[in-house]
Amino acid sequence: MLSDANNDSGFSVLRFYADSIFPPLNYQAEPPVQTLSVTDVHSVVYLINLLVAMNRDVTDEAGSKEMDTGMCISPSQDHNPENLPYVHKVGVPPRQKLLKQFTTSVKETFFAGNPFRPFKGQSRLGKFVLALQAVFPIVSWGKDYNLARFKGDLIAGLTIASLCIPQDIGYARLANLPPQNGVYTSFVPPLIYAFMGSSRDIAIGPVAVVSLLLGSLLQNEIDPVKDALELGFLIDFLSHAAIVGFMGGAAITIALQQLKGLLGISNFTRKTDIVSVMRSVWGTIHHGWNWQTMAIGISFLAFLLLAKHIGKKNNKLFWVPAIAPMVCVILSTFLVYITHADKHGVPIVRHIKKGINPPSFKEIYFTGKYFGKGFRIGVLSGMIGLTEAIAIGRTFAAVKDYHLDGNKEMVALGSMNVVGSMTSCYVATGSFSRSAVNFMAGCNTAMSNIVMSCVVFLTLEFMTSLFKYTPNAILASIIISAVVGLIDVEAVSLLWKIDKFDFVACMGAFFGVIFVSVEIGLLIAVSISFAKILLQVTRPRTALLGNLPGTAVYRNILQYPEAKKVPGILIVRVDSAIYFSNSNYIKERILRWLTDEEEQLKKKGLPAIQYLVVEMSPVTDIDTSGIHAFEELYRSLQKRDVQLLLANPGPIVVNKLHASKIATLIGESKIFLSVADAVRYVPKTEEP
Asked: Mind telling me which SUPFAM superfamilies this protein's record contains (predicted)?
């Protein structure tokens, strides 16, 4: 703090110079125009510098007693007398106890949103209500539920029910399961989700991709090599690009599989690759195709695609593609019934078991030779289902401007599938087509899922016999029209424009699924995504920085060609955390930058590099290998007579630099808050 004496003396000097430059004016008269000479301007500048220096001296004197010795202080004015003094420091955060560091890390990792904050200061009853709302969001939004909201949910629920029942029967066949299992899956899981899910728009039920996955994986014999690959673990490495490619490939594979029902082929391959499927299709062209089935399937497929096109062109006609599948089922069933087409070779559904879901928990086994494979298939299909559901939910949540809780979604989806496994259901998740119809139909809450479940319940109890004469070709047409939307050409085009590596991952997954199998497509996608992660970690980006003219800002000279290099100084930025996997590369890359720069300077006859500044703002962490790499870099630079300066290390990094004594080795006075401070430290090198 400035003393009173210092204040008085400082302001006395200020008044003296001010009075000498600007004589007192008589404000009762018109103020004369004051013209400053060059001498006056220099006097003002001198006065300002004098006051800054006085303030600096007093601040340094008062702060030196309180300053933590761990602070990395920028150098004094002696290093560069031409610049104004500055007092920037790199702070060293206080050390935390190991237990506190661990608990903080766990909290940020698993409880980032601090879910227990609302419970503070609440009574026991209040805490119970909050806990109930956290587990069952229906308790929260149900308080304000009214008839107006129910009207929208009722219309949406009836609309998606008309869509889901034909789809469920078709998806069950795709998964090689009895048709009633598909309908069961649209009864119990949506009820559970309505109570536990946080999305207002997701419509729950079986989906095409997961059905294909189950059907293709479950029909294969156990393969020790594939089992050892632990696909459920590797699914964590699926990037968005890989998922886009996988979904597109799966959509085409699903459509190809439906050629059996669409063309009425009885002997069809069990393989899913396009070569085997097309060989099976063309091999039966003379004796396996049924023209009545083809006529029914192709005509109704055209109708479904037309209905979907109408719905896209006019949002007010969203109900047209929603009810189109049920209309197709009713018309085709009636047509087959009155024409007895089933007696002329048209395959039909024949029988759907009547009644609601029978219990199946007695069929769940946790031992046996199939447990390992079943576990991995469950994890794999669960991860894909979770990814699809959360992607859908977040899309609609962003449109309606509400928060989708990812943790609640995981709990809700997991709970409904656990209960579903005990009630004869297979994997359920959020459906793209169903959720889009639900949204367009004006749903307000998850009550639309309850309405859909009620309709499915009535269907199971009273109307399953009506589907006896439904032709398989109609189910194939419904599935083909549903999966067309999974092929996202615009997303693929965007991947090509943004990131070629992502495009390769997308195409790898796409062609792997189409030409080999679903499992191989997933493995290719995971492998490419994993390779990208390895490249990004082991080969991080580095950049040479230059000064933007007229500023104290230093930026990448490739991004800003106008940025000028500072004579005698090489400024390098590391754009990654420094770990054992990349520390040696970073050290060698910096030395290569230095070698290349020195060669260019030597050719031009310019002064050699004397200082190397490493900008560490993007370096979020560093391990022991990174510390050793910096020590080796420092010693290599010493041999070249180049001094190492560090700019803006973060709190974790600067703590480790001090703990490892690297800060002492380099010199605490050579660690700066910014690149500008580091450059200001260096004596100016005269340009030729």
From this structure: SpoIIaa-like
Q: Of the candidates 636, 633, 598, which has an alpha carbon nearest to the alpha carbon of residue 646? A: 633
Alpha-carbon torsion 105, 110, 115, 120, what sign? negative
Task: Report the C-alpha gap between 98 and 104 in whole angstroms.
Answer: 10
**479 and 590 assigned to the same domain:** no
Do residue 481 and residue 552 come from a single domain? no
Residue 327 lies in a domain: yes
228 shares a domain with 151 = yes
- Report CA-CA distances (Å) from 506 to 229, 486, 490, 500: 21, 14, 13, 10
Rounded CA separation 67/427 (Å): 62
- CA-CA distances (angstroms) from residue 514 to 257, 265, 284, 445? 11, 21, 21, 38
Phi and psi dihedrals of 671, rounded to 5? -115, 120
The residue ranges of DSSP E strands in 132-215, in sequence order, are 204-205
Which residues span the domain enclosing 606? Answer: 541-681
Among 474, 502, 534, residue at a domain's last position = 534
**In terms of domains, do 448 and 569 share one?**
no
Number of domains in the chain: 3
In a domain, 334, yes or no: yes
The answer, yes or no, to whether residue 157 has pLDDT greater than 60, is yes
CB 222 within 8 Å of CB 373: yes
Residue with the larger pLDDT of the pair 530 and 116 = 530
pLDDT at 435 over 70: yes
- In this structure, what DSSP letter does residue 355 have? S
The residue that leads in pLDDT, 380 or 38, is 380
Say if residue 45 is in the same domain as residue 21. Answer: yes
Q: Quick one: pLDDT band at residue 441, thresholds 50, 70, 90?
A: confident
The helix/strand/coil state of 573 is strand
β-bridge pairing 569-574 and 611-615: parallel
H or E element that contains 544: strand 542-547
Q: What is the DSSP letter of 95?
A: P
CB burial of 45-59 (b: ≥16 within 10 Å; e: otherwise) equals eebeeeeeeeebebe
Instruction: Output the pLDDT for position 20.
Output: 44
Quote the distance between the C-alpha of residue 620 and its chain's center.
Answer: 20
- Tokens describing residue 198: 């946080």
Does one domain contain both 549 and 608?
A: yes
Q: Report residue 8's pLDDT band, with 50, 70 and 90 as the boundaries.
A: very low
Residue 556 falls within a domain, yes or no? yes
| Same domain for 250 and 214 | yes
3-state secondary structure of 611: strand
In this structure, are 397 and 460 located in the same domain?
yes
The answer to whether the CB of 251 falls within 8 A of the CB of 491 is no
Q: Which of 534, 556, 575 is the last residue of a domain?
A: 534
